[in-house]
Amino acid sequence: MYIIPLYINLKLMRSKNWVEFQNEPIRNEENKIKKDTKGSNKIYVYKQKKGKKGKTVTIISGLCIDDSIQAKNFLKRLKVLCGTGGKFSNNDFQLQGDLVDKVKSFLREDNYQI
Length: 114
Hints:
Elements: H1 6-12, H2 24-38, E1 44-48, E2 57-61, H3 68-82, E3 86-89, E4 92-96, H4 100-109
Antiparallel strand pairs: 1-2, 2-4, 3-4
């Protein structure tokens, strides 16, 4: 039987793989809830020219985002992806320009049902 000093045992334990609390079941439940809420309703993406002084605007409606911070973060991601401006009003997202294809591909990657 070998006697190993305590300081050698401490070196064997890696700091990256060490888990103090087991929280994986909680995270899995949260991910299931998020996926269920994303796929529960139909999302409409269309372009509109009427009432915008001839400018084309892409409108995303049907997203049920209750928290304003989440809505702002989602809009920020869309604006960075498309490289345009946009706004959030009346539970609709508006982006400047004809970006229907880009928005649809972004929503599909993010597991939304279009």
